[in-house]
Amino acid sequence: MSQVNSGPRGRLAWMAPSRALGAAFGDDAARLLDALGMEEPSPDELDLTPACVERARAERGDGPLR
Q1: Residue 32's pLDDT is what?
Q2: Distance between CA 32 and CA 49 in Å, rounded?
Q3: CA 56, 48, 32: angle at the middle one, nearest 5?
Q4: Where are the domains of the chain?
Q5: What DSSP letter does each residue of 1-66 carry, written as one string?
Q6: Per-residue model confidence (pLDDT) at position 50
């Protein structure tokens, strides 16, 4: 979820959805994103390939989705 919501979007004036949420709702958005475990990866860490899902599952100790 962090990867998908951290990529900039043209429809959001090239802001990431997580940043747009923060801009609109301030501290409430920050608390929500924290409760969901959202972290904003740096641009060089951003990975929107299907492999990012498998990597995140492996980091949590979950098995593959296959």
Answers
A1: 94
A2: 25
A3: 65
A4: 4-60
A5: -TTGGGS-BGGGTTB-HHHHHHHHHHHHHHHHHHHTT-----TTT---STHHHHHHHHHHTPPP--
A6: 82
Q: Taking the model in full, what pTM does it have?
A: 0.64
Distance CA 28, CA 22 (A): 8
Q: Give the Å distances, CA to CA, from 40 to 9, 24, 27, 65, 66.
A: 15, 17, 16, 24, 27
How many other C-beta atoms are found inside a 10 Å radius of the C-beta of residue 58? 11
Q: What is the mean pLDDT of each successive set of 10 residues along the chain, which is 66 residues long? A: 82 91 94 89 82 84 81
